[in-house]
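Most newcomers find our protein records easier to grasp once they have seen one. The structure tokens are whole numbers drawn from a learned vocabulary of backbone shapes. The record below serves as our worked example for the rest of this section.
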Amino acid sequence: MAGKRRFGRIRKLPSGRFQVRYPGPDGVDRPAPQTFRTKTDAERWLVKIEAEIRDGRWLDPDAGKVTVGEWADRWYDSVCLGLKAKTRAVYEGLIRLWIKPRLGSYPLISVRPITVAEWVAGLRKAGLSASRIRTAYRVLSQIMQTAADNDMIPATPCRGIKLPRLPETEPHILTDDEVTKLIAGMRPPHDLLVKLLAYGGLRIGEAFALRRDDVQIDGTSLVIDEAVEEVGGRHAWGTTKSHSKRKIAATVPC
């Protein structure tokens, strides 16, 4: 008479196939996701599951049933407070318009690299720009990587995906003469704004965010510690792009 099995249980069904049940590390008794043609196949599967549990590689099969849409909402809620207002708006819009409508109903575990590749192709057919598609993919990639990091899925499906290339454009750098002509053709205070952008190296949001207190009392320097941007038709104030404070010295009083 065969001894009692050390891990899991195998039962022969009326159909002749073999059913397996095993205790997960969380104490829940679970069935295998499929039945097996032979008892040997069932035993091999149990050995594999036992090794995964022992080595800490076991994943809760129910975790992967969470949908992409549900996990995307949870991911966004966990990161949104650390993002700038404009970035939050971009991420929220991409999830709402392009990720959830097309992938939201998929269980996390069912998303494969080919699923992601087909999604990217659909974005291209919809007319999204290369930049927008790449940003949308980056958001989806973060969502799926977080799912993998939290043991919802074994690995992210966002790998080996061919993305549209960004168009190569050659920026036109204004010469000193061109800047001088531009300033000469503008009325105050807009001429001063152009001087700040051209010679101070300020970003447009940093220049618009300047306040009287940012000008040093002797008029020889500016403190750059804030930026403003338009989000949904409203102004949103926040830190600079680098989140750092810097001082710009003037060669002549401001």
User: Anything to note?
Assistant: The two ends are 96 Å apart (CA to CA). The chain has a mean pLDDT of 87.
